[in-house]
């Protein structure tokens, strides 16, 4: 695995992961953060959206999710995260990992494309192509429309 991909895999595994997963990552066993998204700050009381092929009625949720994701990435690559966009618990987790995650995201380079992939539970999955990396991101919201789940990993080829 390339060093950049390994760093991405580690960041994806620890970004917003529960404390036991952090301990596993530190010990060298890197769990896939996407395998257990329910252990992150899971979105609450949000109605399930229809499948991606459903209708234009779903477009606002996808558009809102994409807009929020672009803002998170821009924050990481710019002046920093806007913690008012996150739930309290998620904001705390991001603050704890910001020193490792921000340089990693900056190293991906400029965003080329953001493509909607599918719904995963109550979160939306996007494929984000940067100058130097292709990634998959999950973003989900709570009932107050705060970002409650945020994960990324290298894109599967």
What are the key terms here?
157 residues, alpha+beta, 22% strand, globular, disordered N terminus
Give the secondary structure arrangement, pairings included:
Layout: H1 3-14, H2 19-26, H3 59-77, H4 88-107, E1 111-120, E2 123-130, E3 134-141, E4 147-154
Antiparallel strand pairs: 1-2, 2-3, 3-4
Which structural class do the helices and strands define? alpha+beta
Euclidean distance between termini CA atoms = 13 Å
Radius of gyration: 15 Å
Could you say what the CATH architecture of the domain at 59-154 is?
A: Roll
Mean pLDDT: 73
| String of helices and strands | HHHHEEEE
Largest sheet: 4 strands, antiparallel
How many β-strand stretches? Answer: 4
Proportion in β-strands: 15-25%
Q: So what's the CATH class of the domain at 59-154?
A: Alpha Beta
Protein name: DUF3887 domain-containing protein
Keywords: Signal
Organism: Brevundimonas nasdae
Signal peptide: 1-23
What's this, in brief?
Helices cover 38% and strands 22% of the residues. The protein is built from 4 helices and 4 strands; from the N terminus they run H-H-H-H-E-E-E-E.
Structure description:
This is DUF3887 domain-containing protein. Keywords: Signal. With 157 residues, this protein is an alpha+beta fold. It has a domain of 96 residues: Nuclear Transport Factor 2, Chain: A (Roll). It has four helices and four strands, in the order H-H-H-H-E-E-E-E. A four-stranded antiparallel sheet has the order 1-2-3-4. The two termini are 13 Å apart. The N terminus is likely disordered.
